[in-house]
Amino acid sequence: MTDLKRMTLALALAASASFAHAADLRIGLQEDPDVLDPDQSRTFVGRIVYASLCDKLVDITPGLEIIPQLATGWSWSEDGKTLTMQLREGVTFHDGTPFDAEAVKANIDRSQNLPESRRKSEVKSITGVEVTGPHEVQFSLADPDATLLAQFADRAGMMVSPTAAAAAGADFGLNPVCSGPFKFVERIQQDRIVLEKFADYWNADAISFDRVVFLPIPDTTVRLANLRAGDLDMLERLAATDVASAKGDASLQVEEAVSLGYQGITVNVANGERANNPLGQDARVRQALSLAIDRNVINQVVFEGAFAPGNQPFPPTSPWYDTRFPVPERDVEKAKALLKEAGFDRLEIEVQVANNPVQMQLMQVVQAMAAEAGFDIKLTAKEFATLLKDQTAGDYQASQVGWSGRVDPDGNIHQFQTCNGGINDSKYCDPEVDRLLNAARVSNDTAERKASYDAARAILAEAMPIIYLYHQTWIWALSDKLDGFVPYPDGMIRLEGVSFK
Amino acid sequence: MLGFIGRRLIIAIPTIVLISIFVFALQKLLPGDPVLAMAGEERDPEVLEFLREKYRLNDPIPQQYLHWMGGVMQGDLGVSLRTRQPVLELIAEKLPVTIQLAVMAMTIALMIGIPAGILSAVHKGGWIDWLANLFALSGLSVPNFWLGIMLILLVSVKLGWLPASGYQPLATDPLRSIQTMLMPAFVLGTGLAATLMRHTRSAMLGVLRADFIRTARAKGLRERTVILKHALRNALVPIVTISALLFGELLAGAVLTEQIFTIPGFGKMIVDAVFNRDYAVVQGVVLCTAVAFIAMNLAADAAYRWLNPRMREQG
Questions:
Q1: Contact A398, A352 (CB under 8 A)
Q2: Which regions form coiled coils (chain B) (predicted)?
């Protein structure tokens, strides 16, 4: 072999080594996650990272049933105030700490008592955690809490290593240690989060990647270009406008699932001075506005038909949706009549909206439709942090916002529409709605809960403090080399069973 | 020379303090509550209050400023409200990225801008001048984000020559690092090259009309020597000023370009920080950028003295 050939070979080897290893999975995220501590974080993309990093007590199926993950079984006491869980044996955290009942106790304690914890309200119903065996734990509750298992299927149920958490305190997120299929390697803000396979994972056979790299790429066009160029293997939140072109590309697959959340217009009905206007004071005006809107047209015009029109806090695909009241047809005449009944021929209202192109376009379509029924909508575009602050403070008439959605129906409705709800920015208050939503919270009987939600929904559909418009669909684009991806309505990316063909 | 630099450094201190006060005050004027932005969908009033206390957001603003400045004096720029990472660490992480991008973009700008400016001045009115002007005009008027996306579609998606976006540190993989930076540097560089070309051209045109150039030609010097040695060196002073200012701007981060090519530099960090009301990060980055800008100006002033001996006698 000549020197030249040898050098060429060496260079070729060096070059190939510099490219990504075949079993590396690169996932494009829409934004950079915040702090990687399940007790402190709040971003949707953060949860996508956790799906590979941190196992939870329980998980969900695509049909929203609760299934075992770190807990293998559970049972409720007769009075619904004690939950006993059997835990998976032979599980260790990434730092070698064994996962057992003591670890669960420490985790609940951390969610409840770490001053920075954002999980406090999610585990508020737990009054005590008792270790009843090395792998059995008992939760005592003040009142029955039907939402608890669903909380355990999200960040409140993510188990972090108690050893690492005690050592790092509030700085745990700089070097998170959990028990999921991948362990934390490094993070460069706004650039990448690297995880590598955890060899001792209890379900290691289902995992076929050596490393997972999350790359935040905010621009949707660029994210798709990266996938097409082979620099990504999959991405989350493909823009609705790109679905057609991605489906037409033979090297890509597109997967979809209607989300658990909603988008709508929250109306200020009793949140300070600015609620004193016809829209805030007269339910007929709100009903008229709702009737003036064609939700199907919004979906076709703004979202190219990719999302799901909606009229309830739960999407039509949810088992909690009240099918007796489907998405209403637009009825301009009825809207005009209602407005007239309320004493107006034309009415000017102000709606605040986040200043991004999609939400602006949405509200412009609403503005045009409502104009035909007699509404002169003035749109005020605000940067999101400002919009949120004004909404909390009551400095708005109506606000176009949404909610990312929760597995349990309670998470989509209770805190928004009960009198003292934490996110009740419209300050709507009806004791009967409170009673129904509280009853739904403490019952473990699905049919009984459904009846309560249906009854509350009927009242809310009349009062209409929130005008529901549509439900976003999570859209993933994947390289055709990937196999086994299952879309979930919570928008997470679960890598069990996913592999390269 | 040393005395000159020393005097300039002393003047720089009040400037930096003023900038820091200005940025601090301006941020507080921004509507929106950092704690609310941080809490997102989980809005437990108790937690919000704890965070406000913890990050001293309840203190009077002058007190907040003094506390922050006290930390800065000790080399502590605070902690990111969003990720809890120390700001100093963040800056140390992003600065090499931004410097690499700035150096590469500046190199491309100088390599295109100065020769194009010289050529179009020498061939004033000819087709080279016309072509260079056309280039300059399009370089100035084509928006970066458009050129960026077009380049990604052409070079990465269609041709597959370069990675579409992302970043690799120079130390771990130099080849890949330069590959990933090439397109963003080109996008930034061509925009700057246009500015540089225009300035080089007008400076050169001014000098080429001067008497000493005629003298040099009359002496029978080669045209090449006349242009590069006599004309260019005299035309360089304004070009150095412009280059230093442009480079200083590059150090502040190229927001749009970084966003499109997902380069984790200053621009992307500061935009994310502003949207999340991550005060500590914004302040830290602006302070750092202000220092860099002042340093670039100082470097430019020092360069004049080296280029133009007549300026050395002035204080």
A1: yes
A2: none
Tokens standing for A453? Answer: 């939600």
Mean residue pLDDT across chain A: 92
Contact of B165 with A220, CB cutoff 8 Å = no
A39: nearest CA in chain B? Answer: B42
* B 266-305: CB under 8 A from A: 268-269, 272, 275-277
Assess whether B146 and B280 both reside in one domain. Answer: yes
Task: Please judge whether B160 and A229 are an interchain contact, meaning their C-beta atoms are less than 8 angstroms apart.
Answer: yes
Q: Is residue B29 part of a domain?
A: yes
ipTM for this model: 0.75
Give pLDDT tens digits for A167-210.
999 899 999 999 999 999 999 888 899 999 999 999 999 999 99
Answer yes or no: do B37 and A388 touch at CB < 8 A: yes
- pLDDT interval class at B138 (50, 70, 90): confident
Q: How many structural domains does chain B have?
A: 2
What pLDDT is recorded for position B315?
A: 45
Contact criterion met (CB < 8 Å) for B44 and A173: no
Q: Are residues B129 and B273 both part of a single domain? A: yes
The residue range of the domain holding B182 is 94-313
pLDDT digits (tens, 9 = 90+) for B202-252: 898 888 888 888 888 888 888 888 888 888 888 888 888 888 888 888 877
**Single pTM value for the model:** 0.84
Q: Is the pLDDT of residue A340 over 90?
A: yes
**Mean pLDDT calculated for residue range A312-316:** 94
Residue type present at position B268: K
CA of A172: which chain B residue's CA is closest? B84
Residues B169 and B56 in one domain: no
Pair (B151, B220) in one structural domain: yes
Residues A268, A280: contact at Cβ < 8 Å? Answer: yes
Residues in chain B with CB shorter than 8 Å from the CB of A190 are 262, 264, 268-269, 272
CATH classification at residue B131: 1.10.3720.10
Of B42, B73, B104, the residue at which a domain comes to its end is B73
- The alpha carbons of chain A give a radius of gyration, in whole angstroms, of 25
List of chain B residues whose C-beta atoms are within 8 Å of the C-beta of residue A188: 93, 264
Task: Identify the burial level of A352 via C-beta atoms within 10 angstroms of its C-beta, where 0-12 means exposed, 13-18 middle and 19 or more buried.
Answer: buried
Buried b (16+ CB within 10 A) or exposed e, B20-41: beebbeebeeeebbbbbbbbbb
